[in-house]
TrEMBL record:
The chain crosses the membrane at residues 12-29, 35-51, 71-102, 114-142, 154-174, 205-223, 235-254, 260-279, 286-306. Keywords: Membrane, Transmembrane, Transmembrane helix. This is Uncharacterized protein.
Length: 312
């Protein structure tokens, strides 16, 4: 017997309805008043790339758009992050890098795709330099899970990572002014020990707790049922889990980077919670789905009420 969660997760109407909900959230948050058109375009492209990430890798073994729907709903719940152009572009680039990296699975000769994946990471770091902290982790994922790490792919990754900076350097050489690049990389030293957690707002804390509960639910479910998926899919989901743990740990240690790290957590949580919603059928999981959905809607309303310019 199909339950509510299964009917919704397998329906072809779910994505259009959720996309409409997302657009409504953007409008309520101040899209027209604040002119967030570039940010909205990045969000739309990111959503499309999440669809492509799911389709090209068959992350869910049945027809379901829950990966992209989960991304839209979780992102909409964090509507107070809509205003940042640089982080929106960095988020888009990270998703694009995932698509290219996953296509390199078990191919140590895939220098071209690795190059393009790290160009995306390099571009992301140009807009948010702390993305560079993820590079060693990506190399480890390539070595242990994607099994695509070799000397060719390593060199391709290094060249790809510095390529955006190489093109940018031409501009700064022309200007004969390197103060901006220096300031850009000096941001990597923006580390605080210990951090004053009293600067974290209630809004940020509530949102963090909800997303982490969602991520934990999806992770536990996947670890318990991963034997049902092919080995390749298991490796990809292991990548999501590792990146989620890394991002959460980084956020707890350095919460001044809350905004970008929450975007990273949402990217990696979306496939995990989508897998849980689409591929479970019990009464308990159906109740969990309803609770998660209602909580997401309430959190969105709360964040809109707290931070939206529409309510000022």
């Amino acid at each position: 017997m199909k339950r509510v969660q299964n009917v919704i997760s397998e329906s072809r109407l779910t994505l259009p309805v959720v996309a409409t909900y997302g657009m409504g959230t953007w409008a309520a948050a101040g899209l027209f008043h604040e002119q967030w058109w570039i940010q909205l375009a990045c969000f739309a492209i990111s959503t499309y790339l999440m669809i492509e990430l799911n389709n090209s890798n068959a992350l869910i073994r049945i027809y379901s758009r829950m990966v992209s729907c989960s991304f839209i709903i979780l992102s909409s719940a964090m509507c107070f992050l809509f205003c940042s152009i640089s982080q929106a572009i960095a988020e888009l680039c990270v998703i694009a890098s995932y698509i290219m990296l996953f296509r390199c699975y078990q191919d140590r000769q895939a220098a071209g795709r690795t190059f393009y994946a790290f160009i995306c990471l390099g571009l992301a770091s140009m807009f948010y330099v702390h993305t560079l902290f993820y590079v060693p982790a990506v190399w480890l994922l390539m070595a242990f899970y994607l099994q695509s790490f070799g000397w060719r792919s390593f060199l391709a990754s290094v060249i790809g990572l510095i390529t955006p900076y190489w093109f940018a350097s031409v501009y700064f050489i022309y200007l004969e002014d390197f103060s901006l690049p220096v300031q850009h990389f000096l941001q990597l030293t923006d580390l605080q020990f210990p951090y004053d957690y009293t600067q974290i707002t209630l809004q940020q804390m509530v949102t963090f707790v909800f997303v982490i509960i969602t991520a934990t639910t999806g992770t536990i479910h996947y670890l318990r049922t991963s034997f049902n998926d092919k080995i390749r899919i298991r490796m990809l989901y292991n990548c999501f889990i590792v990146m989620n743990i890394l991002s959460t740990s980084y956020l707890i240690a350095q919460p001044q980077h809350y905004d970008f790290l929450m975007r990273m957590i949402v990217i990696n949580t979306s496939p995990l919670i989508a897998h849980f919603i689409a591929l479970t059928h019990t009464r308990v999981t159906n109740i969990s789905f309803c609770i998660i959905t209602i909580s997401a809607l309430l959190l969105t309303a709360y964040n809109l009420w707290i931070s939206s310019s529409a309510f000022l």
